[in-house]
Amino acid sequence: MNIGLVLSGGGVRGVAHIGAIKALEEDGIVPTHISGSSAGAVVGALYASDYSWKDILTFFKGIQLFDIKKYARKKPGFIDAEKFYFDFKQYLKKDTFEALGKKLTVTTTDILNGELTIFNQGELIKPVIASAAFPGIFTPVQIGDSYFIDGGALDNFPVAPIKNDCDMLIGVYANWFKKVAIHELKHSYNVVERVFKIRSVIDDVSKFSECDLVIAPVDLGDYGTFDKKKLDEIFELGYNATKEALVKTDFLKIKGPSEKSFDRTLETSS
User: Fold this and answer.
1) How confident is the model over 5-59, as pLDDT tens digits?
2) pTM for the full model?
3) Do the beta carbons of residue 234 and residue 20 sit within 8 Å?
4) DSSP 3-state assignment of 210?
5) Cα 14-15-20 angle, rounded to 5 deg
6) pLDDT tier, 178 (very low <50, low <70, confident <90, very high otherwise)
7) Which 3 state secondary structure label does DSSP give 87?
8) Which of 72, 114, 124 is nearest to 93 (CA)?
9) Residue 104 needs a FRET pair 20 to 30 A away by CA distance; which of 125, 169, 183, 205 works?
């Protein structure tokens, strides 16, 4: 049976994907196909490379997002995304999709022509970095003759790329937002990030019904996109929400599209 795993964007909230992977494996569920955007592309690439959840969590804890050595010069962004290449190369020794143990698809946005671009073959690391290059913060990544940014700009919950190849689909969603007070929007990038997220969530939720199971812990909305101080809490949210969803749905007994279900209580704000 081909089982697909769809991993959304969400910045450091994507660490919830790692907790979900741990819970799924404890239940004997090992995906064969992965589709990821932004943080989901990063987790997906490492998981498709057969790293354990512990190794992936270690990667996220070790990566320095705002390292002064990675500041961009004469490029549109504060941090030069391409300077993360060697961080990824330490884990992704073979820089190619074909070397992965699981089928992987990542989404990116071609910033020049404004089109969604899907990568699932050839060079691996640059597409993954590009998929996670949050616009305005990280510089676009050059691949071939064009430049690419965050896949979440056009498809933050990439169900379509793998749904026809899989018998069952599991989605993990890490991009919820909650109501905020105006004083919480302290900087211009906070406003840009929130607008970006609001639009994304509207599009993403419409795809939930295409999955057999969706794990979407709304409490992730309490955590910032780039705040690494509470990674263990985010991990636990993903793990616990997945455990709860698996118990409620008895996922492995779902047989076909007519019986698709997911726990809608996990989608609503508390």
Assistant:
1) 999 999 999 999 999 999 999 999 999 999 999 999 999 999 999 999 999 999 9
2) 0.88
3) no
4) helix
5) 95
6) low
7) helix
8) 124
9) 205
* Burial group, residue 204, by CB count within 10 angstroms (0-12, 13-18, 19+): buried
Say whether 5 sits in a helix, a strand or coil. strand
Give residue 11's pLDDT.
Answer: 92
Question: Which tokens sit at 154?
Answer: 């056009």
Q: SS3 sequence, 144-157?
A: CCEEEEEHHHCCCC
* Amino acid code (one letter) for 53: W
- Residue pair 86/94 in contact by the 8 Å Cβ criterion: no
* Of residues 189, 148, 213, the one with CA closest to residue 4: 213
* Phi, psi for 208 (deg, rounded to 5): -55, -35
Mean pLDDT of all residues in the chain?
A: 89
- Parallel/antiparallel/unpaired status of strands 103-110 and 146-150: antiparallel
Q: Residue 93 — φ and ψ, nearest 5°?
A: -60, -40
Distance CA 194, CA 202 (A): 13
How many residues are present in the chain?
A: 270
The helix-helix angle for 39-48 and 53-62 (nearest 10°) equals 140
- Coil/strand/helix, residue 206: coil
What pLDDT is stored for residue 186 in this prediction? 72
